[in-house]
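4.2 Preliminary Data

To establish feasibility before requesting continued support, the project team ran the inverse folding procedure on a target of 118 residues. The structure was first converted into the token representation described in Section 3, and no sequence information of any kind was made available to the design step. The complete token record follows.
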């Protein structure tokens, strides 16, 4: 039986994989950088990883655009936000700006192909 989870204990935002600090900033449109240790990663990848972990705790959660921005806590351009939404979210029925997390299979396949070629 699942236990109830209080969301008040969770801190939103991207956490660095290296130093575990909160505090990412976008550099250009494609990459983000940790303000503490300088770790650099793709904004789309860290956004997907964040929502993958969050989806494990709260499956079938729905998000509005502002919810996605609030979760990431990173300032990105409108173009980058659209890329994140298109590759990681699907619209809920015919509602305009309500989404559910469903990462694109093409993104997973392209990342696996890149890691196999190394």
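Position-by-position output of the design step:
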């Amino acid at each position: 039986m699942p236990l109830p989870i209080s969301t008040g204990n969770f801190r939103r935002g991207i956490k660095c994989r290296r130093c575990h600090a909160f505090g990412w900033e976008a550099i250009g449109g494609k990459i983000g950088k940790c303000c503490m240790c300088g770790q650099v990663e793709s904004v789309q990848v860290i956004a997907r990883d964040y929502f993958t972990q969050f989806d494990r705790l709260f499956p079938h959660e729905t998000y509005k655009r502002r919810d996605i921005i609030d979760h990431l806590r990173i300032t990105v351009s409108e173009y980058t936000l659209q890329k994140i939404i298109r590759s990681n979210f699907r619209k809920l029925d015919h509602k305009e700006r309500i989404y559910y997390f469903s990462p694109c299979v093409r993104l997973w396949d392209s990342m696996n192909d890149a890691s196999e070629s190394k």
